[in-house]
Write a structure and sequence with these properties.
The protein is α/β, with parallel strands linked by helices. The chain folds into two domains: 7-96 and 209-261, Rossmann fold; 100-206, Rossmann fold. It has eleven helices and ten strands. Strands 4-3-1-2-9-10 form a six-stranded parallel sheet, with helices on both faces. A four-stranded parallel sheet has the order 6-5-7-8, sandwiched between helices. α1 (17-26) links the parallel β1 (7-11) and β2 (32-36). The longest helix has 17 residues, at 48-64. The model has no long low-confidence stretch (mean pLDDT 97). Bound molecules: D-glutamic acid. Residues 11-13, 15, 41-44, 74-76, 117, 120, 148, 184-186 line the site of D-glutamic acid.
Length: 265
């Protein structure tokens, strides 16, 4: 195994950069290849078969680029297709999913809310997870159509975002939810706006750190960790317009990043 090979990271768009930045911090020597499928975002209102097929094509592209492992930085792909993808590819696949279990352990009011795409929340796997771990805790699912799109256009603080979040969150907050699980990787970029609507008594949970811990554990166990002499270069691909992607990525990550056009898959 050549440990200097890259790790692939994929999302329907730029949301997975919330996970990418934590990987970058925690594993600075790893070479990373990020695919933003922004030309086809959002995934959250597409059908399961389409998401499964498209994500398999993107992972095949990452495998073709020589990736030693892949991180699915998209809850929607995970909840719909992770089992099939793990059967299809023989490299390790680490995947983010809504952090319901830790939120259930944290709540004091006995009510938590999970913000995610419509597709994630209607998936069988998430319903099963809720049934398995919720116990006495009430778990309110809050589908957030339109929210990932705001992040895709780097609109994180406008009055429209505040208005949208107020409409989405008010029912769950009125029922006493004291934990909000960010079940879509686009939403950590809206943490300040979400916190402003929810108030300081509500805790917002982002599972990125836990997923990166899992990634680290897995690649160490498989003896895949990049040597500390590795430069840890990041390469970006987008299926959307690259000029627009450059502006959005710069505003989300805070630095300029060259982006190449993803070939037709
Ligand atoms: N960022 C994705 C997720 O974590 C999906 C957003 C979308 O494309 O709908 O679910």
């Amino acid at each position: 195994m050549d440990q200097s090979k890259p790790i692939g990271v994929l999302d329907s768009g730029v949301g997975g950069l919330s996970l990418f930045r934590t990987i970058r911090e925690q594993l600075p020597n790893e070479a990373l290849i990020y695919v933003a499928d922004s030309g086809y975002a959002p995934y959250g209102d597409k059908c399961e078969a389409w998401i499964a097929e498209r994500s398999a094509q993107v992972i095949a592209f990452l495998v073709g680029q020589g990736c030693k492992a892949v991180v699915i930085a998209c809850n929607t792909i995970t909840t719909v297709a992770v089992n099939r993808l793990r059967e299809t590819f023989d490299i390790p696949i680490i995947a983010i999913e809504p952090a319901i279990k830790p939120a259930v352990a944290m709540t004091k009011s006995g009510v938590i809310a999970v913000m995610a795409t419509t597709r994630t929340l209607s998936s069988e796997s998430l319903q099963r997870l809720r049934n398995r771990v919720a116990g006495e805790v009430e778990v309110i699912f809050v589908p957030c159509p339109g929210l990932a799109e705001r992040v895709e256009s780097a609109d994180l603080v406008s009055p429209e975002v505040h208005h949208l979040l107020t409409n989405l969150l008010t029912p769950a907050l009125s029922k006493g939810a004291d934990i909000l699980v960010l079940g879509c990787t686009h939403y950590p970029f809206l943490t300040d706006a979400i916190q402003a609507v929810a108030g300081s008594g509500v805790q917002v949970v982002d599972p990125s750190a836990a997923v990166v811990e899992e990634l680290k554990r897995k690649i160490c166990a498989l003896n895949m960790l990049a040597p500390c002499t590795n430069a840890g270069i990041a390469t970006f691909w987008s299926s959307g317009g690259t000029a627009q992607a450059q502006v959005v990525v710069q505003s989300l990550l805070g630095y300029r990043q060259a982006i190449s056009k993803l070939p037709e898959l």
